[in-house]
Amino acid sequence: MASTHGAEVLVASNRGPVSYEVREDGALHAKRGGGGLVSGLSAIGPHTDAVWVCAALSDADREAVRRSHGGRRLSADVTGGQQVRMLDIDATVYADAYNGIANSVLWFVHHMLYQTPLEPVFDAEFRRQWASYEAYNRAFAEALAEEAADGAEVLVQDYHLALVPRMLRQLRPDLRIGHFSHTPWAPPEYFRLLPDDIAAELLGGILGADRAAFLTQRWADAFTDCCHAVLGPGIPSGTRIGVHGLGADADFLRARAHRPDVTERMAALRAEIGEGRKAIVRVDRTELSKNIVRGLLAYRQLLEDHPEWRERVVHLAFAYPSRQDLAVYRAYTAEVQRLAAEINDQYGTPGWTPVVLHVKDDFARSLAAYRLADVALVNPIRDGMNLVAKEVPVVSDEGCALVLSREAGAYEELGEDALTVNPYDVVGTAQALHRALTMPHDERAERTKRLAAAATALPPAQWFLDQLHALEDDQSS
Prior knowledge:
By secondary structure, the chain is an alpha/beta fold. Helix 14 crosses helix 17. It is globular, with a radius of gyration of 23 Å. The strands form 3 sheets. It has a 7-stranded parallel beta sheet, with helices on both faces. The protein is built from 18 helices and 15 strands. The protein has helices spanning 36-42, 59-67, 91-110, 124-147, 164-171, 188-191, 196-206, 217-231, 250-256, 260-273, 292-305, 327-347, 363-372, 387-395, 411-414, 426-437, 441-455, 460-476, and strands spanning 7-12, 18-22, 28-32, 50-55, 83-87, 148-157, 176-181, 211-214, 240-243, 278-285, 313-320, 355-358, 375-378, 401-405, 419-421.
């Protein structure tokens, strides 16, 4: 199934490097996406024959696919000359695969989010949605098989596409295939909540790759443990296991953080905080695993246990709504807002708002908060990496104490210079916030320098190229 003019390098992910909008005159407007993958792909240069295969996520995306005669090689100059193959997957199939399985099952398993007395329930409806997840993965595998040149390198991304490597291997055994997991990987006792056949299919899907890679050694070891527990001893396919800890893009962040719009937002935030007060900053999506509610509870505990901080500190909480098409996420977002208002009602004074909550996504404002933060609170229940923990030290103006969950992947690299917390321990997190607020300036500055160095050790472009080189090295060894 190789393409006559096949690509030498291919990337597959649910979300691609470009999205579209239809303007009033009917013209399509392309917008470049963000994130490490987009930065990474640009590292191989516009002259390399590379194709990114992704799903159409909006009606405008689907219209772009239709106008391109089936989505083959969309013109995407906004990505730096790279070519995009966007898949117009049936809307029902996509919803079942993305929301029904990827976000409501696989995400919950790997982040260990289930309330097990009531969930999960793997019934006939789950099986129907699983068939859609298989069909969604098959569409990606077939598109990759069509687009790839002989012996091409294919990097498949994340839990949405766990079945693609095995499917693609069956279609194109000549390809060099890698799979990268951006989430944590559940330990065997939790992973085996899944039906046995589904657990085996997920592992077998990834084991179709020449190389399976993870953000930390902990997640890589958990994957291997699951293979042994579910499939038996050894990695039967000979798949090699790798670790690549995605770092922050220091050059981009530092340049972007000093643009005029960020400066304007810093002035606005300083006005909200008030003269002479310290700022505890968190920047997250309202994702269940981010643990925003316990972070607010810990801040309330800080104000209760250390009344000397009242009117002397403000918690800047940026909680940007995520996955609001799922009821449990809407309820979580509402609880964040309710608790922030409750803290303000309990402790606020005419001249002091203890919690300044923003729910509208604003990247420039996030960078402004990074720059002026005295303390960064990053306390996820579980997180594959957590780039916020890496980004804040990189752009902080005066140095910033980092309060970091030991369950974040970033803990492996940053834990030595952070104040580490158990994400479930509200009292312990409050104590860590107090230590962070009272940390001497010189110590805070020195810790920030070391945190920034560790955070930028493997920037996105190098992270991407390392995976390509590892595939090449595996082939030659």
